[in-house]
Amino acid sequence: MIFKKVLSLMITSTLCLGLLVGCGNKDTGENSTSKGNDESFTLRISTTGEKDDNLDLAMDMFKEKYPNAEFEIISSPWNATREKQITLMSMGDIPDICKTGGWAKEFYNDGLAMNLTDVIKDWDIYNKLTPG
Known about the structure:
Elements: H1 2-23, E1 41-48, H2 53-65, E2 69-76, H3 78-90, E3 97-98, H4 104-109, H5 117-120
Parallel strand pairs: 1-2, 1-3
Helix pairs in contact: 1-2
């Protein structure tokens, strides 16, 4: 179960990072250099107020691969997390990563979350994931 949570967070983080990098690139007409690799970026994570070693582990693993990554944790009690996330999203302040309960499908149906199945179905790890 821990592996699946960490994997889910890592996949989501990586895909969000790809979106950030892909959408933030301006064409200046100059050749690319490694300079862009030194830029820091922040991933905003909405989660419960409960201590979560899986999140710490996932952030550590992500930081190893992307040392310039920073994390902003948006924390709320479990019984208020859904409402907090809905409030953020309704204000256009959408976190990069959300820890959700059964409401992830609701977010998808409302156009607030993406179905990543087509993106990850060719990855070796895909068959080890649980449906959801």
